[in-house]
Amino acid sequence: MPEKALPRQKIVDIHSRSRGSAGERTIAGQLTQEGDNVGRYKAASLMKELDIISKQPNKHKYKISEDISKIAPNLLNRKFNVKALKWSSLVRRCDIRLGG
Questions:
Q1: What are the residues whose beta carbons fall under 8 Å from the beta carbon of 32, sequence distance 6 or more?
Q2: CB atoms within 10 A of CB 43
Q3: Which helix (H) or strand (E) holds 31?
Q4: Which of 16, 33, 15 has the alpha carbon at shortest distance from 24?
Q5: How far is residue 11's CA from residue 32's CA, in Å, rounded to a whole number?
Q6: Is the per-residue pLDDT at 48 higher than 80?
Q7: Per-residue pLDDT tens for 60-73?
Q8: CB atoms within 10 A of CB 50
Q9: CA-to-CA distance for 76 and 69, rounded, in angstroms?
Q10: pTM over 0.70
């Protein structure tokens, strides 16, 4: 019985060290590095027994402000009307050689 309890405790430790983001592959890899020969599917079944779920952190979401900026006034007021179009010439070929 102590043999089965040891990988379970190690799985809980690995999962808590990763702040809940370690999944079956990561846990199996770390257990193998520590000397316990545990495969991916065995790690998955032990995670299921222990009710451990891998959760990846959410991406940062930028807040879209509805208010006017308090730092600088909006001088353009989103008026981007162009009075006269100026066409630029096309660059057909540009040779850039780096190194010697």
A1: 38
A2: 26
A3: helix 24-33
A4: 15
A5: 12
A6: yes
A7: 888 777 777 777 77
A8: 13
A9: 13
A10: no
What span, in angstroms and rounded, lies between the C-alpha atoms of 61 and 39?
36
What's the residue count for the chain?
100
Q: Which two tokens stand for residue 16?
A: 């808590």
Tokens of 97: 């050689």
Is 22 strand, coil or helix?
coil
- Token code pair at residue 76: 């353009």
Site of tokens 């162009």: 82
Question: In the block, which residue shows the tokens 């540009």?
Answer: 94
Tell me how far apart the alpha carbons of residues 48 and 4 are, in angstroms, rounded to a whole number: 15
Report CA-CA distances (Å) from 91 to 16, 42, 88: 56, 60, 9
Q: Are 31 and 7 in contact (CB under 8 A)?
A: yes
Report the amino acid identity of residue 69: S
